[in-house]
Amino acid sequence: MAVIPFSQALRERTWTSHGDSEGASFMKDLMSGEGTREDYIALVAQHFFMYEALESAAGKFASDPVAAAFISPQLTRMPALVADLEFLLGPDWRTKISALPSTQRYVDRINEVAAQNWAGGFIAHHYTRYMGDLSGGQAIGRLMQRHFGFETNGVGFYLFDQIASPKQFKETYRDQLDAVEWSDEERERVIDEVIVAYRFNTEVFIDLTAAKAAA
Ligand code: HEM
């Protein structure tokens, strides 16, 4: 039996969970143009809390022998998120946003993985967000520009100005995933954590829909 590369196994084994995230009605509405500018801003706000946790964990893993290969300043999203929120909500943006319960659970999990010094877990969360941002995220960014008339202000999160070719970047990322000398058992744990990460993302979309209905 041919051995398939880990990056391929990871993708295949998590693609159903990806479909759950992609299929959430909040996302579908935003992409189709049925979602409002307020919906979009609510999503940007949740991204702020997610990336605050993820990128503070990245700081912690910067000298980890396994995780360091995945951490790249070209990916860093916090400055873009801060600029987007300033543009969308004004100078006092920070007082206007808060983490939804599902976002807080997601953040807690990222912090927990970091506290455990678990490189595989950190990479699982890193992969789920950044590979997504460089994939479907690119189409989402263009749709938000079209629906809401953004040029670059407000959608900086989706614009990786230091990555010339997302396709090439993702190929290198997959090569790096394949190069890590994880045991089969550890690979299983990483795949399971990506499924967990997808679930958090889906729950945030569900929470965003509920918050919208309650407003
Ligand atoms: C409307 C929402 C979404 C759309 C339309 C979408 C679309 C896509 C597409 C077309 C790909 C394949 C790109 C390629 O092979 O180069 C992809 C990959 C990916 N997406 Fe999404 N996506 C969405 C939401 C999400 C969400 C919410 C996440 C998680 C936060 C996510 C994470 C990923 C990841 C990690 C990959 C890379 C899989 C791999 O090749 O290993 N996506 N997405």
TrEMBL record:
GO terms, molecular function: oxidoreductase activity
Superkingdom assignment: Bacteria
Entry EC number(s): 1.14.15.20
Record keywords, A-Z: Heme, Iron, Metal-binding, Oxidoreductase
Gene3D superfamilies named among the record's database cross-references: Heme oxygenase-like
Enzyme class: oxidoreductase
Pfam family, one: Heme_oxygenase
Annotated protein name in UniProt: Heme oxygenase
Species this chain originates from: Antiquaquibacter oligotrophicus
